[in-house]
Design a protein that fits this description.
With about 210 residues, the protein is mainly beta. The protein contains one helix and 17 strands. The strands form three sheets. Strands 1, 2, 3, 4, 5, 6, 7, 9, 10, 11, 12 and 13 form a twelve-stranded mixed β-sheet that branches. The longest helix has 17 residues, at about 1-20. The radius of gyration is 18 Å and the shape is globular. The N and C termini lie far apart (about 40 Å).
């Protein structure tokens, strides 16, 4: 009986340890640029509300190579990229097992680029982000790979625990979210705090239902 109880406890601890690694939405959504113009484009929706925080577009890498889905655009000052050295807008390629936390160098002022598309693996490379909401930081990574001169964005995950580190590649088999499967959602600001209203229920950024 003690062995069974201990096993159950271990499973519960493991489930809570990984439960906060949450899939963001990757796909078509509404993106509002700096001018206030809203269009439907491809990109990343960190809080799964149907509105993209980052638009992903065709363009050029930092080395001048024309390539698909290599350029990032974001109008939210809360977005930061995990950067490569002193380049404030060049994404650093990460490896599985790297940790993104408050000590990780981040930067960016509305755009971001891949340094050189030829440096991206044809199977799995990673880039990272920091998204700050109401003074709380959420760390995220995206799995990408290269097909010819195109960057393919495979998956995006974030740690839903505020200010908690995330280990690159730690997706633990979580079900991905797709735009076509998203519920009816919208952002709600109450007393300066951002919440997500989904199908009449109110959630904080960690996914906890508050009303």
């Amino acid at each position: 009986m003690k062995k069974i109880s201990f096993l159950v406890m271990l499973l519960l601890v493991a489930s809570f340890t990984f439960a906060q690694v949450t899939p963001a939405t990757l796909g078509q959504g509404n993106y509002t640029d700096w001018s206030g113009n809203t269009t439907t484009v491809y990109g990343i929706d960190f809080n799964n509300d149907g509105n993209l925080e980052i638009a992903i577009k065709d363009g050029y890498d930092f080395s001048g190579n024309a390539c698909g889905k290599s350029s990032l655009e974001y109008s939210d000052s809360k977005i930061q990229l995990v950067i490569d050295g002193d380049s404030w807008d060049v994404l650093r390629l990460l490896n599985a097992g790297d940790v993104i936390n408050s000590s990780t160098a981040t930067g960016g002022y509305g755009d971001g680029y891949i340094n050189d598309i030829n440096e991206i693996s044809t199977t799995a490379s990673y880039v990272g982000f920091k998204y700050t909401v109401s003074g709380q930081s959420y760390y995220s990574f995206a799995k990408i790979h290269r097909e010819g001169n195109n960057v393919v964005w495979d998956k995006v995950y974030y740690n839903a625990t505020p200010n908690a580190a995330i280990t690159v590649g730690a997706n633990v088999g979580i079900q991905d979210r797709n735009m076509e499967n998203a519920s009816t959602t919208r952002k709600v600001v109450i007393n300066g705090v951002v919440y997500i209203e989904r199908n009449g229920d109110l959630y904080d950024f960690t996914g906890r239902r508050v009303k």
